[in-house]
Each structure stands twice: as structure tokens, then as C-alpha cells.
User: Which sequence fits this backbone?
């Protein structure tokens, strides 16, 4: 190690022309920091939302607090800034929450990196020490973690509430968090307990009412009315449901065809044949005992015609048409039935059974609700209501974040305190560790460890408290050994955060620090921007 | 009276100016990629001005050069050299361009000393011969000892990966790459190694899987696991059987006939499916769409049907399972079916994929890459590809050398001796060649932020002793013993 430091001290004798390199690096870091500063004010329970207008003459407007959404809507040109936007997206994909945290962390790390570079550190040395820092930080987080069981519903509700606290819908968190937890728990497959596929949970939006009217439905809903044009039934009990992928309409070949008529008697005959054909199909459907029909949208020809609707209504069959092809998988999974592609294959065993199928009015539109499904598959559906479209969209995004948080807990069953506590703890332990190291590495790690304190600093700043006082007191309490002391924004002081039920999944914090470090390493190693084809 | 010989836009340059233009162009290119050389080399952002404005971050010389806008013809030649190096060997694409640039730089100085270019070329040729012979003499071959060979391969892989993004996990990935290549058993056909990218997780979650993975889900209502699979691979339309004549129409005179025709179409599809089933298969993979009706027929017959498989996947699947890709189904006897032991659905992250294991072509394997973002995954794939190319070449030609600037110094020493023995102006050219060679370790040291002039002079002194194995150790920042440090590269 002595030889190493001796070799490095001789480096100053060389002359290297690095102006272009420094320029490009400086530009990259400045751009990335600008992006990080843009989202800083959204962090935490007192964070503000951003309104983003896009499209022609600002037609499309979105109000959101979610970092990933903000960054993906900003039209960024500079490549380093776009890397930060992608960083936020990766955090969204990996953990679902903490998307703003990760960008703020990356911005702060880059600021420290710039100081290091101007002090003469080689970028690769800084990048390497950052990697070691990330590994060590994850270890520290693991030591702070609290294990939980999936049966502990309370802790799950607490973490979901913490995730929802910083969003627009925070005052409804006492309603939405239990909903999210119930939805998620009903979807978990006991055969694969560490996997939660969020595609099994459908969130449907309907304008009207307030967010209070959001509900979790143990069944299925369709954002369509039952077909009324022929006066069919709108409520069926003890339903046998068939999902069909063929068309109940006059026969049409795939090749273009035309029917040539040479005298008027033939015209009559044609009409009669058409009627008989459809009647035959409807009879077969009725014979199997089916009384609810879900018809897939077809691109080849009309799925149903007025005539077929009339016959189906007479046969007292409730019809829902225009079901999308990609929804079929979700529907068949929920109803535990198979789709039928041809009238010949219409058999009893392909039908699904449900207790009640009815059309309800929701706001000023109607939807079809199926409940009491026999052998229901492991899926869940949520109906989100709201007073305006923007609120509904943000509520859906927040719900998605809460569901992701629960997914993290299913993946890695550990919790960690929130409120800036993990960041300060990591910062202090890493600084202590840096003192044991030597050379450039020690200097780099010390700087980067201080960078982590930006999170509690920003939390305090956004809450209107004096950040320096708060952060120094936080450091003091952690030095005394209170690992779970964090910023309580409601009271405006430092308290034991665990008692306040502010918790977050371990996966969110570990993935935030690993992803931020990886992204910063990549930006540091870039020394040139080349425009190419 | 020679009027206009050339077209309006064409430009003609002669003599001095032409040579100058070529030199400058080539040196500009070499200078561009210089900073990516070595384990402490930097990356570059490639920002595309085309549609999508995509951004690529890379360290690989060939990738950077392939995407540049270049006017200067000499520079284009350099880019071609890099491409050829990439195709033939896979690694060293930056070194070759830097070497060419340095040689041209030295040659420019010689031209200014009024030495004729042909003399310079002759001198360079002699120097190149001598250098190659020197390397071949000193190369080591560990073909016999399989343990040592494997550790050689590991070291080579680690050397290749050390300048790329995978450098932090290089042991893990070196292991992966060596396993994959050893399975190939000597063939350089890298087609059978598939690299699959799935965002999510971290680089350490990547793994090597024997067998083949297809990025598709199994259709509804079909068996999720098949043993002793016989696979039929096809490229046929299973939705509607249109006549491919534009404007074809059918004229009938009653609705019943239309119904009949519709029935006939369905029957045709049913027969097609029956023919397919008649091959005695239990898995059917189609490149195009399989619409609802045939899908249901297959499900009823208990056959696994996969649609929309991409073209590359199909070709690889055919190669790997030993099956032909068919479009007609009339002759079941003449069709070769693919075989594999087990087909099942697996989950990676949150996506479901289909896994074929126990395939006929035992060399096939799949490397699944996981990573935080698309950029990371793309760069990881490029680095892994480089490592795999190099390793497969080594398995063929098993001679290896130490790395870290050692081969360049050895060659430089031999060439210096040759220069001293050669009379005439050629010797100037030969000396220049040696100087150019020494530029490579200089640049590696520069990129690492070390004092290059000092280190090179130390290296030269070391090499003066016989049988020296000294090279630059960028981690400690000084001259080190390459044998101990295990920095190895391919002849």
C-alpha cells in the first residue's frame, strides 16, 4: 500500500491535456444536477406536486408527485439528464416507490463527485470507491432491517400508508392502504409466495363521486353497458358465463364475397336463411344453459348484429360485447373458464359460474359487475372514483405505488424505518468506516457518505423546518445510538419514527442506493459526447 | 485544353496535400478512441441524431467507430480495420486503431525527413515480420493441462472485461463466459449461445442456463410442461387462408351457400391442424399468428402452441433442437422434428418465458442478463460478446501471452535490435515502428493517470534483462510481474 501512495504522488509531474474531457464531464454533471433539483421539492410527505402540460398549446395536463412520471414527461435533450430519467424508471420497475429519492440521491452524489474531480481524483478511482460504498451501504441497511410476516396485516398497511403519504390522495390513505393490502394478499399464489404479479390486479377508473367511493371488488367488472338495444336482461342470478371469440352474425367468408341475386324470390330466401342461421347459433348457445355471453371484439366482421342481439335477448341471455383481446386472459383466469372459439366447441365444461351478474350505475354511466364467482382465480379488481380526471389519474398512480410497495415486501420481507433515519445511519457508519481506509479511497468515501444526508435535509426543507438544525440534531441522536430516530414532520421535531408508523420496505432503500450509485458511476466514466448517425 | 474532367462536386487532391489529409484524418480518429484504452479507460456517450434520439454509453472501440459520421477516406479505412478486428477476433478493436494512428504519426515525421514512402513501407514490413516472430517464440501454450488451461481462459476473460462496465463483477462474468465457451467444445459458432436481456435485478443476478429460452408465454388452456417433446417449427399463417390474388371474390346466389363457404374455410383450417397433429408432435411453434380457432383445436389435442416467435428465435431454435422450419404439412415423413427432453414455463423477474432443456445440440446454452437499465444491459451484452469471441478463438488457437503492455515491449526490443543491424534508410522506419509500439503502454498508463514517461523507461530497463515478465500494473500504479498478476491475453 505504501508503494501505491508513493506511485500516486509522482503523478503530478505529468502534463495532460484534459480540457475537453473536463468540459464534457462538467456539462454532464451540471445537466444531471439540474434535473435532480427540479424534482427535489416533491420529496417527502410535505412535498409539492408538479403540473406538467404537454401537447399542442398545452392541451394535456397532468398533476403528479411521482418522480418517475415527472421525469418521463419532461422532454429532456441532454444525454446525461436522460440517463437520470431512465434511472427513475428503473427504480419504478424494481421497487415501485422511491423514484424521487433515487434522483435526488444521484444529484447529490454527482455534486460531491465534482468536488472530488476538481481536487484531482481520477474518475475511475471515484467510481470504484462508489461501488464499495454501495455494497457497504446495503449491508448497513440490512442490519437496520426488521423482519415481518405476510400475515402481519398491520405492518403492511403501515408501509402502504407511508408510500401514500406524499401523494395528492394522502388524506384517503386510511381507506386506500387497507384496500391495496387486501387486493395484493388475495393475489399471492401460495405455491410461489415470493412473487406478486401486479398484472393480476386491474385498476379501473370511473369519473364521478370522490376518492372515498373507491372499492375493491371480489369479482370482475367491465367498463361497458350490457347490450340494451334489443331489451335484453340486465341482471342474472346463478349465471353461467361463456367467453366467446367467434361472431354471432351472418356468415362471412374471409375472402371477399358477394351474393348475386337474380330474382326477387331469392331475396326473401336470403333473409330467411340468415335468420335461421343465427337462430341455430343462438339455440345452441341456449342449449348449453349459458345465460351470460362475453363477446370478444372482432376485426374480421361485426361481432353481433341487431338480429342476433334480438334473438339473444329473447333467449334471456345477457350480452356484453366488445371485450378486448388482451383482456381475455385476465377474464378467463378470474372466471376459471376457457374461451370458446367456435360454435361447434360450445360445451358445458367451458362455462364459468357466478352468483350474480348485474349492471349497476356508477356516476352517470353503467358498468357490468360479476360477483360471487365459483372457483375464482387469484385476481383482484379495484374501482377508483374521483371528482375529476386529474385526481383519478393521480389516485391510480398512487395506488400503483402502494401495490408496488407491498410487492417489495412480498419479495423481501423486511421493513426499515422511514423519515430519513436510514440515510443518516448509513452516512454516519460510512464516515466512520472511511476513517479506517487509506489514500484517495478514504477521501472519496467520506465525501460520498456526506452526500447521503441530502435526503433528510430535503425532507426538512420541504416541511418548512430549519434543515440545518434538524439534520444536526438527527446526527446527534444517531450518534447516541438511537438508530430509529427520524424526522417527524407533523410535530416538527426528531422522534422515534417506528412508533409513528412511518416505515418503508427494505427493497426500496437498497435498490435506490444501488441504482443511484450505478448511474453516477456511468456518468463519471464518460469523457466525450459524440454525435452519430 | 483539358476542360472539366470531374463532375461539379468532385474534388481532386494530389501529392503533399493528399497525404497530409489522410494523415490528419486517421490521427483524428485514433485520438478519439485513445481515451477508452486500458482498464482505466473512459466511456463515451453516442448521441444519435436520427429518429428516437437514442443514447448509447460504450467503451467498445468498434461500436464507437461504426456509428461515426466520417468524410475523410483514410479515416474510413481505419474504421474498416476496426470492424475486421472485431469480426475476426472480437477484442482489441481500440488497440488496433490506436496502433495504426501511431504508426501514421511516426510515418509523417519520416516523410518530413524526406524518406520515400516506399522505403518506409518496406521498413515497416520488415519490422512487422520480426515482431510477429518474436511474439510467436515467446507465446505459451497450456493445451495439455486442462486446469491450467481453464485458469488461462479465466484470466483472459477477466482481462477483456476489465475495461468494460462489467469490471466490478468480472470474476463472476468471466466464469460465466468460460463455462459457456467450454460447452461449445471447440466450435467457433457463437450462434448457439443466446444472450437474453431482462431489465430488473442487478448484474449479479445474471445466470447461465443450459438449454434454450424463448421469450414468449404459453397460450391459454395449454399444458404448462411437456416431457419428451417433439417440436414442429413452422412459418405459416394460421389465421385466415386468403387467396393471395388481389381482388379475388366469390360470387354465390344464396345465404346458405355463404354459410357453406364459411364452413368450408373452417374445415380447411381444421384439416390443416389435423395434418399438423398427424406429425405426432406435442409442441408446435409458429413464427406468425395462431388465431383463436386453431389455438383451441391445439389445446384440445393437448399440444403446446406458441405464436409470434421472432425470426431469430425460430432460426436458433431450429439449429438447437435439430428441427427443420416448415411451411407446408403434406409430407410428414420428410420433415425433421426437433427434440428436447423438457419444455416448461419459467419466471424470470416477473415475466414468463419458455424453457427448452435437454436439447439435442448439447452445445446450446443461454445467458440471461439482468441489470438496472437498458443502457447497462446493452453495454453488458457488448462486453460479454467481446469476451465470448476472444475465448472461442483461444479454444481454437491455444497460445497465450502476458498482457499489460508486455507484448508491445517485447516486440519493441526485438525491433530495436533489428534496426541496429539494418543498413540504409529502412532502419529509420524500423525504429519508428518500435516507437509506435511503445505508445500503447504509454496510453494505458496515461488513461490511468500515472506518470507514463517514467513507467515506460522503467519497463524498458526491465525488459533488457532476459526472460522478463514485466508489465504495467494500473492498480498499484507501477511496474509489476505479469505472471503473478495473471494478466493474460491471446496471441
Assistant:
Amino acid at each position: 500500500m505504501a508503494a501505491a501512495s508513493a506511485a500516486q504522488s509522482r503523478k503530478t509531474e505529468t502534463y495532460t491535456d484534459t480540457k475537453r474531457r473536463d468540459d464534457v464531464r462538467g456539462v454532464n454533471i451540471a445537466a444531471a444536477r439540474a434535473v435532480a433539483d427540479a424534482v427535489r421539492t416533491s420529496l417527502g410527505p410535505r412535498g409539492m406536486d408538479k403540473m406538467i402540460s404537454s401537447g399542442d398549446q398545452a392541451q394535456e395536463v397532468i398533476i403528479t408527485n411521482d418522480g418517475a412520471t415527472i421525469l418521463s414527461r419532461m422532454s429532456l435533450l441532454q444525454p446525461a439528464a436522460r440517463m437520470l430519467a431512465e434511472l427513475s424508471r428503473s427504480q419504478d420497475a424494481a421497487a415501485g416507490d422511491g423514484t424521487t429519492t433515487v434522483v435526488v440521491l444521484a444529484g447529490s452524489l454527482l455534486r460531491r463527485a465534482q468536488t472530488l474531480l476538481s481536487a484531482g481524483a481520477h474518475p475511475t478511482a471515484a467510481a470504484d470507491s462508489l461501488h464499495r460504498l454501495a455494497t457497504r451501504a446495503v449491508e448497513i441497511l440490512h442490519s437496520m432491517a426488521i423482519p415481518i410476516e405476510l400475515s402481519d396485516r398491520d405492518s403492511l398497511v403501515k408501509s402502504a400508508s407511508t408510500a401514500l403519504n406524499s401523494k395528492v390522495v394522502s388524506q384517503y390513505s386510511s381507506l386506500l392502504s387497507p384496500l391495496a393490502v387486501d387486493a395484493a394478499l388475495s393475489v399471492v399464489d401460495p405455491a410461489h409466495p415470493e412473487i406478486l404479479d401486479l398484472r393480476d390486479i386491474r385498476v379501473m377508473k370511473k369519473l364521478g363521486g370522490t376518492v372515498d367511493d373507491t372499492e375493491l371488488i371480489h369479482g370482475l367488472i367491465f367498463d361497458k353497458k350490457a347490450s340494451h338495444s334489443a331489451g335484453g336482461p340486465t341482471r342474472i342470478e346463478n349465471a353461467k358465463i361463456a367467453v366467446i371469440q367467434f361472431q354471432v352474425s351472418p356468415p362471412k367468408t374471409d375472402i371477399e364475397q358477394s351474393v348475386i341475386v337474380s330474382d326477387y324470390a331469392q331475396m326473401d330466401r336470403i333473409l330467411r336463411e340468415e335468420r335461421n342461421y343465427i337462430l341455430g347459433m343462438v339455440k345452441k348457445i341456449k342449449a348449453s344453459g349459458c345465460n351470460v355471453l362475453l363477446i370478444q371484439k372482432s376485426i374480421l366482421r361485426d361481432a353481433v348484429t341487431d338480429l342476433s342481439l334480438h334473438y339473444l335477448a329473447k333467449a334471456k341471455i345477457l350480452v356484453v360485447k366488445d371485450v378486448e383481446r388482451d383482456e381475455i386472459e385476465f377474464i378467463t383466469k378470474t372466471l376459471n373458464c376457457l374461451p370458446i372459439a367456435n360454435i361447434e366447441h360450445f360445451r358445458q365444461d367451458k362455462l364459468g359460474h357466478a352468483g350474480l351478474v348485474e349492471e349497476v350505475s356508477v356516476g352517470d354511466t353503467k358498468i357490468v359487475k360479476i360477483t360471487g364467482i365459483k372457483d375464482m382465480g387469484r385476481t383482484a379488481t379495484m374501482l377508483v372514483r374521483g371528482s375529476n380526471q386529474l385526481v383519478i389519474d393521480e389516485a391510480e398512480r398512487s395506488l400503483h405505488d402502494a401495490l408496488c410497495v407491498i410487492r417489495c415486501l412480498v419479495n423481501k420481507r423486511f421493513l426499515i424505518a422511514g423519515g430519513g433515519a436510514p440515510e443518516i445511519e448509513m452516512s454516519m457508519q460510512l464516515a466512520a468506516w472511511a476513517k479506517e481506509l487509506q489514500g484517495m479511497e478514504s477521501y472519496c468515501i467520506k465525501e460520498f457518505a456526506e452526500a447521503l444526508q441530502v435526503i433528510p435535509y430535503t425532507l426538512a426543507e420541504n416541511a418548512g423546518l430549519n434543515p440545518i438544525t434538524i439534520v444536526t440534531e438527527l446526527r446527534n441522536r444517531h450518534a447516541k445510538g438511537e438508530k430509529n430516530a427520524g424526522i417527524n414532520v407533523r410535530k416538527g421535531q426528531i422522534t422515534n419514527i417506528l412508533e409513528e408508523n412511518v416505515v418503508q420496505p427494505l427493497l426500496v432503500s437498497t435498490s435506490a442506493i444501488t441504482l443511484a450509485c450505478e448511474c453516477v458511476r456511468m456518468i463519471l466514466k464518460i469523457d466525450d459526447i459524440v454525435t452519430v448517425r | 485544353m483539358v476542360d472539366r474532367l470531374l463532375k461539379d462536386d468532385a474534388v481532386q487532391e494530389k501529392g503533399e496535400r493528399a497525404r497530409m489529409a489522410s494523415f490528419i484524418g486517421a490521427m483524428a480518429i485514433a485520438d478519439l478512441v485513445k481515451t477508452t484504452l486500458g482498464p482505466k479507460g473512459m466511456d463515451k456517450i453516442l448521441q444519435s441524431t436520427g429518429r428516437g434520439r437514442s443514447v448509447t454509453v460504450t467503451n467498445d472501440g468498434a461500436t464507437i467507430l461504426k456509428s461515426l459520421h466520417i468524410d475523410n477516406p483514410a479515416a474510413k479505412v481505419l474504421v474498416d480495420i476496426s470492424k475486421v478486428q472485431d469480426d475476426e477476433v472480437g477484442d482489441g478493436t481500440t488497440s488496433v486503431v490506436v496502433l495504426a494512428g501511431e504508426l501514421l504519426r511516426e510515418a509523417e515525421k519520416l516523410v518530413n525527413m524526406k524518406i520515400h514512402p516506399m522505403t518506409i513501407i518496406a521498413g515497416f514490413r520488415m519490422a512487422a515480420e520480426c515482431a510477429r516472430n518474436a511474439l510467436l517464440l515467446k507465446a505459451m501454450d497450456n493445451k495439455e493441462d486442462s486446469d491450467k488451461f481453464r485458469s488461462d481462459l479465466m484470466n483472459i476473460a477477466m482481462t477483456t472485461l476489465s475495461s468494460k462496465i462489467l469490471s466490478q463483477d468480472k470474476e463472476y462474468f468471466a466464469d460465466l463466459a468460460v463455462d459457456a465457451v467450454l460447452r461449445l467444445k471447440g466450435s467457433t459458432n457463437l450462434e448457439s449461445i443466446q444472450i437474453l436481456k431482462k431489465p430488473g435485478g442487478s448484474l449479479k443476478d445474471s445466470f447461465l442456463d443450459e438449454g434454450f429460452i424463448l421469450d414468449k408465454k404459453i397460450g391459454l388452456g395449454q399444458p404448462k410442461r411437456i416431457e419428451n417433446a417433439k417440436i414442429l417449427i413452422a412459418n405459416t399463417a394460421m389465421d385466415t387462408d386468403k387467396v393471395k390474388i388481389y381482388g379475388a371474390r366469390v360470387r354465390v346466389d344464396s345465404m346458405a351457400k355463404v354459410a357453406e363457404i364459411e364452413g368450408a374455410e373452417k374445415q380447411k383450417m381444421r384439416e390443416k391442424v389435423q395434418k399438423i397433429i398427424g406429425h405426432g408432435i406435442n409442441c408446435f411453434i409458429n413464427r406468425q399468428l395462431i388465431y383463436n380457432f386453431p389455438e383451441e383445436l391445439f389445446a384440445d389435442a393437448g399440444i403446446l402452441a406458441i405464436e409470434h416467435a421472432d425470426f431469430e428465435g425460430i432460426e436458433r431454435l431450429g439449429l438447437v433442437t435439430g428441427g427443420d422450419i416448415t411451411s407446408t404439412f403434406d409430407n410428414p415423413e420428410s420433415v425433421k422434428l426437433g427434440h428436447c427432453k423438457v419444455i416448461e414455463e419459467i419466471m424470470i423477474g416477473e415475466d414468463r418465458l419458455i424453457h427448452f432443456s435437454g436439447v439435442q445440440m448439447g452445445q446450446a446454452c443461454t445467458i440471461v442478463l439482468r441489470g438496472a437499465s437498458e443502457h447497462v444491459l446493452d453495454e453488458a451484452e457488448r462486453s460479454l460478446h467481446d469476451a465470448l469471441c476472444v475465448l472461442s478463438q483461444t479454444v481454437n488457437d491455444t497460445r497465450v501471452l502476458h498482457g499489460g503492455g508486455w507484448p508491445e515491449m517485447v516486440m519493441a526490443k526485438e525491433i530495436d535490435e533489428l534496426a541496429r543491424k539494418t543498413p540504409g534508410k529502412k532502419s529509420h522506419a524500423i525504429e519508428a515502428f518500435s516507437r509506435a509500439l511503445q505508445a500503447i503502454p504509454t496510453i494505458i498508463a496515461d488513461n490511468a493517470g500515472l506518470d507514463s514517461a517514467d513507467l515506460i523507461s522503467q519497463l524498458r530497463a526491465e525488459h533488457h534483462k532476459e526472460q522478463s515478465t514485466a508489465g504495467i500494473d494500473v492498480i498499484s500504479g507501477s511496474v509489476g510481474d505479469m505472471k503473478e498478476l495473471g494478466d493474460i491475453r491471446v496471441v
In short: Chain A touches chain B through 80 residues (CB under 8 Å). Confidence is low (pLDDT under 50) at residues 1-17 of chain A. The two ends of chain A are 46 Å apart (CA to CA).
